[in-house]
Design goal:
Helix content is 0%, strand content 44%. It is an all-beta fold. A 4-stranded antiparallel β-sheet has the order 3-4-5-6, with no helix packed on it. Strands 7-8-9-10 form a 4-stranded antiparallel β-sheet, with no helix packed on it. The chain has a 4-stranded antiparallel β-sheet with strand order 11-12-13-14, with no helix packed on it. Strand 9 (102-107) and strand 10 form a beta hairpin.
Length: 198
């Protein structure tokens, strides 16, 4: 599996677009996220004999470098869903380094990764085989909305990446699965998938 960067020429003839294979390694490479501010690409990866849920990593690379750099790459730690903030200053991802799948955040270069939410709860429905989805979204440049799995039900909360203050949204706990959060990046509005379990 590989990552490709597609360059579309100035002309509008899409047939003239050409792919460029990025020199990153890994048996499985998923969920690339492009930072339009500095050209960094974040992705998560893993290779046998490890599986996604026991040892997987988040890396960044650039279009000019053949040397991917780790954001989080530790033995027996699982990481998923890298996503840049709208202004490109933060990189959020889900990681179980503290024993639970929780929201983490790094800076614009993918450095200084830290835990944002330290609850003893997993973020949402962490079916790790599902890619291209998300259990969180950026509401704006500093705020992330995310799901939490509590005793079979779901809650939706938000966290400020600078203060690490978590606020639960004032809705009843949800008897079903919430996933695929997407936002307008206006600080207030987002949509998500909901699947009732009953």
């Amino acid at each position: 599996m590989s990552l490709w960067f597609i360059r579309e020429p100035d002309r509008k003839d899409i047939h003239d677009a050409y792919p460029e294979k990025l020199q990153v390694s890994g048996t499985f490479l998923y969920d690339p996220s492009f930072n339009s501010m500095n050209g960094k690409i974040a992705f998560h990866t893993w290779s046998p004999p490890n599986m996604l849920w026991n040892t997987s990593s988040i890396f960044t690379c650039s279009l000019t470098s053949n040397h991917p750099e780790p954001v989080m790459a530790e033995k027996d730690v699982a990481c998923i869903y890298p996503s840049w903030s709208p202004d490109g200053k933060h990189l959020a991802f889900i990681c179980d380094k503290n024993g639970y799948m929780n929201v983490h955040c790094a800076d614009s270069e993918g450095k200084n990764a830290q835990l944002l939410v330290s609850d003893s709860l997993d973020v949402g429905f962490t079916s790790l085989w599902v890619t291209g989805s998300s259990l969180f979204c950026w509401l704006d440049n500093k705020t992330i909305a995310f799901t939490q799995h509590v005793n079979g039900n779901f809650l939706i909360a938000k966290v400020n990446v600078e203060t690490k203050v978590v606020a639960k949204l004032k809705i009843e706990s949800i008897d079903g699965v919430v996933s695929s959060l997407q936002s307008l990046h206006d600080g207030r509005h987002f949509v998500c998938n909901f699947s009732n379990q009953s």
